[in-house]
Amino acid sequence: MSEKEDIVQRAKLAEQAERYDDMAAAMKKVTETGAELTNEERNLLSVAYKNVVGARRSSWRVISSIEQKTEGSEKKQQMARDYREKVEKELRDICHDVLVWFAVICFLVFPPCRLQKNVATLLQYLFLDMSYCTQYFEFDGLLDRYLIPKATTPESKVFYLKMKGDYYRYLAEVATGDDRNSIVENSQSAYQEALDVAKSKMQPTHPIRLGLALNFSVFFYEILNSPDRACQLAKQAFDDAIAELDTLNEDSYKDSTLIMQLLRDNLTLWTTDNAGDEGDGGGEQDAPTGQ
């Protein structure tokens, strides 16, 4: 067993033990080899970070609700506020880690001469403040110039663009002010680019394309507060997939039909919400097994 295979096996073991922080750390090491990830490795990476960040997102929602309910008790409200801010920092750090580390790997594998001159500044940003490092990479466009172009298949490119959109969306959930505006723009841009590629290169029934439509529609509903656009995107994806169900192969049938069910569930929920009922933002999806 090679060193890479050993690390992947450790990630699988961590997943079975539901130790997702360990799983994420292992998959980060795999990514740092610089080689393009296999489908299995790509999915392990996504599952690991989805669970790591998902735990914080869930905690943030619970604590935010408690904070709102403690109005009238200044001490309790301050305690809830402090705890929410602690969870927010953890959530931001994880999302920044994903976005920045993608760029760092690309920097190491594809070091442009003009960027080599800025190594000292880069490392200073990297180790002193993760948010500054993220901004640095955004200005230089490393994520878009070097990581995503390295993907050799439409599936890989859409997967990574979707992942970029997802993690900016997670940041948008807790961001405020001008920072939130730029984060939202980054998320929408990544999702839209992924959707453009998916529509031109992938079957409507492909689970990665369906998962993208699902998460992008959640973005419209939750982040942009645009239920009409959310429903339009979800319905179009569902209808397109239904029209080409005969293109589904046995390997992806389970994944694709599961996501189609989530799309339909969200449409039902959002339609009900628009009629005046309260509800959450709907289900989302990150990486179907084996795709």
Automatic annotation (TrEMBL):
Residues 4-284 form the 14-3-3 domain. Residues 272-291 are annotated as: Disordered. PROSITE patterns: 1433_1. The record marks 57, 169 as: Interaction with phosphoserine on interacting protein. It comes from the Eukaryota. SUPFAM superfamilies: 14-3-3 protein. Belongs to the 14-3-3 family. This is 14-3-3 protein. It comes from Trichuris trichiura.
